[in-house]
């Protein structure tokens, strides 16, 4: 099994961000090197001010945002960003923004949360993660 995990986070919905953050934290806790490549909706979720953004859910959960948010708070389930931050603190975890998506949406690195280390292209990501177990979320 690879000691590296590559994760392409394309979705900006809360369910997918939660899954990605839990998998990242688990892999970091196991000592894996984790590289997270943020693109499209996944990248947009990492814009500064994410904590004020409403919960975004897929169609099958539409209308349940408030109850899910309350339940998560009551059960002390951490926000997906907290999981990502904790993973970065405990392990070798790197977050990169997709340069093509940044250009498409006219974003600058300063528009993103500090957890995002750099803006890179696909070639850099592929070279960095060669031989890694890869997940697309």
From TrEMBL:
Lineage: Bacteria, Thermotogati, Deinococcota, Deinococci, Thermales
Taxonomic superkingdom: Bacteria
Name by which UniProt lists this protein: Peroxiredoxin family protein
SUPFAM superfamilies with a match to the protein in the record: DsrEFH-like (SSF75169)
UniProt-listed Pfam families: DrsE_2
PANTHER family per record: CONSERVED WITHIN P. AEROPHILUM, PEROXIREDOXIN FAMILY PROTEIN
